[in-house]
Amino acid sequence: MFIIGELINGMYSNISAAIKERNKKEIQKCALDQVACGADALDVNCGPASKQPLVDMPWLVESIQEVTDKPLCLDSSRPAVIEEGLRAARNKTIINSTTADVEKLDALIPLAKKYKSKLIGIAISAKGVPQNKDQRLELAATIVDNCQGQGFSIEDLYLDPIVLPVNVAQAQMKDILESISEFKIISEPGAKTILGLSNVSQGAHLRSLINRTFLTMAVAYGLDSAILDPKDKELIDTLITAELILNKNIYCDSYLEAYRKK
User: Fold this and answer.
1) Angle, in degrees to the nearest 10, between helices 79-88 and 53-65
2) Count of Cβ atoms closer than 10 Å to residue 144 Cβ
3) CA distance 214 to 212
4) Distance (Å, rounded) from C-alpha 9 to C-alpha 226?
5) Can you tell me whether residue 178 is helix, strand or coil?
6) What is the number of alpha carbons within 13 Å of residue 88 lying toward its C-beta?
7) Per-residue pLDDT band at 262 (split at 50, 70, 90)
8) Which residues pair with 118 in a beta bridge?
9) Parallel/antiparallel/unpaired status of strands 93-98 and 192-196
10) 3-class DSSP state for residue 49?
11) What pLDDT is attached to residue 68?
12) Which CATH class is domain 2-261?
């Protein structure tokens, strides 16, 4: 599983304050803490309170790069903000994210090609959130078709079926999980799959338990990557164990410790 740490996000009060105060040490500590807990990449989002995201995004990128060379997942709804982050990046990047809307695809696919970045495509459009598996597959196919048409390698594409909170969209959970496996057969080679895990428990009680359970089920459906909180030890232990049961890792009595040493 390719783990993207979610915690460098201006929606969190400590990160929002660090951005405003240009407190580089707080950002760097958050980056290193997530890497120490197993993050393979780091999501970078200025957050909704940022008044100057075109300045804040490259500052975040530069601050993080001083302490780690992990790939950065540049997270913004504005292509211009993402490009400022791409310009500042010295290491590998992931663009988070494009929708299935033509204007978004036409803006972000060329950026991904120009900067040799991977790309996350979310199965959503301006028409709204998909309500069933067929709608998700149609939107995902639109993203794949546009990537192929613009010469972007599908091997560098991640598809996200868009996770909704279980407390308001319980009936959609099975469709979301089934979409993970079906996304992989849209093309050959198939795209990778990804989830923004924390969305599933948004607004619910027992958030960590819901996240752990949903992640385990998603792994069984073939999930390749997730944006999550790597500091949630029980979540990561559950992920490691799920992959062990699916024969993705070799068993030993100290398999948790062995996995973390890899």
Assistant:
1) 30
2) 21
3) 6
4) 16
5) helix
6) 23
7) confident
8) 94
9) unpaired
10) coil
11) 98
12) alpha beta
Beta bridge partner(s), residue 102:
none
Buried b / exposed e along 16-35 (16+ C-beta atoms within 10 A): bebbeeeebebbbebbbebb
Q: What is the tens place of the pLDDT at every residue in 62-117?
A: 999 999 999 999 999 999 999 999 999 999 999 999 999 999 999 999 999 999 99
Rounded to whole angstroms, the Cα distance separating 50 from 127 reads 27
Q: What is the pLDDT of residues 208-233, one digit of tens each?
A: 999 999 999 999 999 999 999 999 99
C-alpha distances out from residue 119 to 124, 166, 222, 249, Å:
15, 26, 19, 27
Q: Given CA atoms 219, 7, 114, 63 in this order, what sign does their dihedral have?
A: negative
Q: What is the pLDDT of residue 113?
A: 98
pLDDT above 70 covers a percentage of the chain that reads: 100
Backbone angles phi, psi at 27, to 5 degrees: -65, -45
Tell me if 27 sits within 8 A of 56, measured CB to CB.
Answer: no
Query: How many Cβ atoms from other residues are within 10 Å of residue 247's Cβ?
Result: 8
Angle (CA) 8-13-14 rounded to 5° is 60
Q: Token pair for residue 137?
A: 């597959």
Residue type for position 131: Q
Give the CB-side neighbour count of residue 172, counting CA atoms within 13 A: 19
Residue 1 has pLDDT above 90, yes or no: yes
Chain CA centroid to CA 241, Å: 21
Residue 128 makes CB contacts below 8 A (sequence gap 6+) with none
Q: Hey, what are 144's tokens?
A: 């794949």
**Hey, which residues does 93 pair with through a beta bridge?**
72
Digit-coded pLDDT (tens) for 188-210? 999 999 999 999 999 999 999 99
